[in-house]
Design goal:
single chain, 8-stranded parallel beta barrel, TIM Barrel, about 900 residues, globular, mainly alpha
Length: about 900
């Protein structure tokens, strides 16, 4: 889609929106919207006095006029995003056509062809494939400001535009145009803000509302990989396991979230299982309709007829179920049996027919394999085998659980729980006084003991924790451990934090259980200090005999989660990026010394200040030698809708993940980059010092709270989890998400660039050092990704708008040092990026993105200036006395700016 087509489509939708505003809000209000739109454009092109005019106009608006204006610009930005996404899909299609019969760039075919061109042997490729596993984990972090009701209407408009593009008859085109207008009208009449926080179970359903897209696209991605392997390597290489699977924190993440209880977690497991089985039932029904093959036309493999006969012999009432089917249609008979067994799997164990329910996804796969092998033996069976392969991929990727449910809890909570248990059970009188060495010894000695006392003696937190671990044991017994993901320990700071989980697991193990395993225990290293201490923590874990024995039983595999959010809030962008890079290499070295293999779980956020940016770029920039094809990534908040609402964009995202994983796993270790480590050590220290200088200035927290909408963001009902781990407290207690969200709203994205300018500013002034930095940028994927992501954050920042927020500070004189530091660092960071990229302006190398930001700024600016005006009006009231309508309008503005920036936290 060319730029002219984008403008034309946006013009069409804008006109439809304009007519809607006239109809529902009246011509005078529509004129205010238009006046603001024109004034924002004048302001951007530098028309004299335009800035004063737009601010004066906004200040004159009453609450109702502001409400209409915010809604108008928010919808306009949503429609712009929709048009831009359609352009992206169209461009991808055009590139594929132009490249054919060669693979298009960044495709799975391109990756496999590249491996072939590198003369990678079939055995090496098979090794890569056997390790290939991308696990995407959906989280309910409160960054998706858009309601599902709004998303669904935008999805319908997108579908209608596809029809509008087709060669429709005139009357059909008129009908489609009317339907688009109808959806825009419904959108106008829909509340943008949730009236209250969602429940955890509502978040479960909302966060996984994208599951139909994933269910359909994952088999396509796997099929592309199979075809590419066949094309380049013939039958020498096979894809055996699932390349993509899914996990979820929603309903399991209880870190600082009192609403996630053992009962909620158990309900979530049941919800995920029901959804998965429903999808499998639908797949079975589609195949039943499709496979009408008759023995009158073909001969059937004896294994299939034997399986059917054995099933009827075991469950005689099946004969009645099959009586309505033609006796010659054996495939349908077998599918009917599979369908019945899936129905039994849905029932409570006490209600299901004995032995009929599937105990695991593997059993379902075996039954489908009988069908597949029988069809493959037919003449022409290859024409229908693909339908069954598609279902087999879905079975491998989604199992009977849809997504593995992770559990997360703070190490400090578990420590308090264990301390209370040790005291109450008379296993140690003063556990709080134990050193780390002594603590490990006490936990090891008491590992496997049973509770000797009445649980009425325990605190509510201990009872809740015990209930959680009993729930996990029940799920493992009823659904198998395949339904359970990682047990993540946030704020891990010592090896005993990991042993604690094993201790609690053994404490409540059911009597008579012969299961000697445990759920995967995953330490989360979040702060700069924890990342630095990571190798010693890992070495300490491996030195605990009981835990090392558990790792042996788990195939000497250990997962470690890396926190991108808190490390950046703690140490700044450049310092955190380098700490994460160094930690991965040091952790892999330590793991090798202990004979274990690591999988890293990357806790990336959607925003650039929390490890965001293109996921494929992130994979390619991982430290060489630390990635062998298996990793986990979090997918958070607004990222879910942006990446998975549109099937074409979802497919491209999944495709690029596999493309980058194949190339990263298949690349040799690049020793050259190690010569730059000393330089990175040096600049990371400078960046950290500069960043901490800002945060540790007296009065910084008050400045931050007065010049961003953090107070309202903390109260937004867009997620079930509180914005703070504990009430009160300062910056350290604030979660990284509202920290980044607030700076993004004020168009000052310091979490993604602050400190970069000072760290590299001197170096780029020296020709020799600049030449070396440019070599780093050209040849080192890590450094290139670091600079490119910072460039995008700088391009999205706008210090003129940020200064409007800074004017909200009560004491302008005391706020001036902060403003000067931020402005100076912004300028220096821009200069560094331009020096390294050789560009005249930011994003000159990505003109479509530069133009996208330029256009959308015209629509975001009014929302920012309105938000500043609303915050200023709110200063006239004490926090608890702020009028409800004023607070609602401020929240509306937050929603609109998030839509425009295409990111929140």
């Amino acid at each position: 889609m060319k730029d002219a087509e984008v403008r034309q489509e946006l013009g069409f939708l804008g006109a439809e929106l304009g007519d809607t505003i006239r109809e529902f809000a009246g011509e005078p209000t529509y004129e205010i919207v238009e006046q603001l739109r024109r004034a924002a454009w004048d302001r951007r092109i530098g028309v004299e006095s335009a800035d004063e005019q737009i601010k004066a106009l906004i200040a004159s608006l009453d609450d109702e006029q502001i409400r209409v204006v915010i809604r108008a610009f928010t919808i306009l930005l949503d429609l712009f995003n929709l048009v831009e996404d359609r352009r992206r899909v169209r461009v991808l299609g055009e590139r594929a056509k132009q490249a054919y019969p060669n693979p298009r760039a960044e495709s799975i075919r391109a990756a496999v062809a590249e491996l072939k061109a590198r003369e990678t042997s079939p055995a090496e490729v098979q090794s890569i494939l056997d390790a290939l596993h991308v696990d995407l984990v959906f989280t309910a972090h409160p960054t998706e400001a858009k309601r599902r009701s709004v998303r669904s209407k935008l999805r319908v408009i997108r579908q209608l535009l596809e029809e509008y593009d087709s060669d429709q008859l005139p009357e059909d085109r008129d009908r489609t145009e009317h339907l688009i207008r109808t959806e825009i009208a419904k959108l106008w009449q829909t509340d943008f803000i949730r009236p209250w926080r969602p429940s955890v179970m509502q978040e479960v359903a909302r966060g996984l509302s994208i599951k139909p897209v994933l269910w359909n696209e994952v088999p396509k991605v796997n099929e592309e990989l199979r075809r590419a392997l066949q094309e380049s390597f013939g039958d020498e290489v096979r894809l055996n396991g699932p390349s993509i699977t899914f996990g979820s924190w929603i309903g399991g993440d209880r870190d600082g979230h009192p609403g996630v209880t053992a009962e909620v977690t158990e309900e979530t497991f049941a919800w995920l299982r029901r959804e998965a089985i429903t999808f499998h039932l639908q797949a079975c029904e589609r195949l039943f309709d499709s496979l009408s093959i008759s023995t009158r036309q073909v001969s059937i493999d004896q294994r299939l007829t034997t399986a059917i006969d054995e099933a009827i012999a075991r469950w005689p009432h099946l004969e009645e179920r099959l009586a309505s089917l033609p006796p010659s249609e054996w495939f349908r008979r077998w599918l009917s049996i599979i369908h019945w067994k899936l129905e039994q799997t849905q029932l409570p164990s006490e209600s299901a027919t004995a032995g009929a329910a599937y105990g695991s996804a593997g059993q379902l796969a075996e039954d489908v394999a009988i069908l597949t092998e029988s069809i493959q033996s037919l003449s022409g069976g290859k024409y229908v085998t693909r339908e069954l392969e598609r279902w087999q991929t879905q079975i491998k990727s989604f199992g009977l659980h849809l997504a593995r449910l992770d559990v997360r809890q703070s190490a400090n909570i578990y420590k308090d729980v264990v301390n209370e248990l040790l005291r109450t059970c008379d296993w140690h009188s003063d556990p709080e006084s134990l050193s780390e060495t002594d603590r490990i010894e006490v936990l090891s000695e008491t590992l496997g003991r049973r509770l000797p006392t009445d649980e009425g003696d325990f605190s509510s937190m201990v009872c809740e924790t015990l209930a959680l671990f009993r729930t996990l044991h029940r799920v493992a017994a009823e659904y198998t451990t395949a339904a359970i993901g990682a047990h993540v320990i946030s704020m891990t700071s010592a090896p005993s934090d990991v042993l604690t989980v094993l201790w609690l697991w053994e404490l409540v193990k059911p009597e008579g259980s012969n299961d000697d395993g445990c759920i995967p225990v995953v330490p989360l290293l979040e702060t700069i200090d924890d990342l630095t201490a990571g190798p010693s923590i890992l070495a300490g874990m491996c030195a605990i005999p009981a835990y090392r024995d558990l790792l042996r039983r788990q195939g000497d595999q250990q997962m470690i989660m890396l926190g991108y959010s808190d490390s950046t809030k703690d140490g700044g962008y450049l310092s955190a990026c380098w700490a994460l890079h160094q930690a991965q290499q040091a952790l892999v070295d330590t793991a090798g010394q202990h004979g274990i293999e690591l999988t890293f779980f990357h806790g990336r956020g959607g925003s650039l200040g929390r490890g965001g940016g293109p996921a494929a770029r992130g994979i390619l920039s991982l430290p060489r030698g630390t990635f062998h094809g298996s990793l986990r990534l979090t997918e958070q908040g607004e990222v879910l809708a942006d990446r998975y609402d549109d099937p074409a964009i979802a497919h491209r995202h999944l495709e690029q993940l596999i493309w980058s994983s194949l190339l990263a796993a298949g690349s040799t270790i690049n020793a050259d980059s190690q010569r730059w480590y000393a330089k990175m050590d040096e600049v990371a220290k400078v960046s950290l010092a500069k960043y901490r200088e800002l945060l540790e200035q007296p009065g910084f927290v008050q400045f931050f709270r007065s010049v961003t909408p953090i107070a309202e963001i903390e109260q937004l009902p867009i997620g079930s989890r509180p914005s703070r781990r504990k009430s009160g407290g300062g910056l350290s207690d604030l979660r990284a998400i509202p920290w980044v969200f607030s700076w993004t709203q004020s168009r000052c994205l310091i979490p993604a660039w602050y400190g970069l300018g000072t760290a590299l500013g001197t170096a780029v002034q020296d020709e020799q050092q600049l030449a070396e930095l440019r070599t780093m940028y050209d040849r080192w994927p890590f450094f290139r990704a670091l600079i490119d992501n910072a460039e995008l954050a700088l391009a999205k920042s706008d210090l003129e708008i940020a200064n409007e927020y800074a004017s909200l500070a009560a004491d302008q004189e005391s706020s001036q040092p902060f403003r000067s530091l931020i402005a100076s660092q912004y300028r220096e960071s821009c200069q560094v990026v331009l020096a390294l990229t050789g560009q005249a302006e930011l994003l000159d190398g990505t003109p479509w993105l530069k133009e996208s930001i330029r256009v959308r700024n015209r629509f975001i600016d009014p929302l920012n200036l309105i938000q500043v005006e609303l915050l200023r009006r709110g200063q006239a009231y004490a926090a608890e006395e702020t009028p409800i309508e004023l607070r609602h309008l401020t929240r509306l503005s937050i929603n609109g700016i998030a839509a425009g920036m295409r990111t929140s936290g």
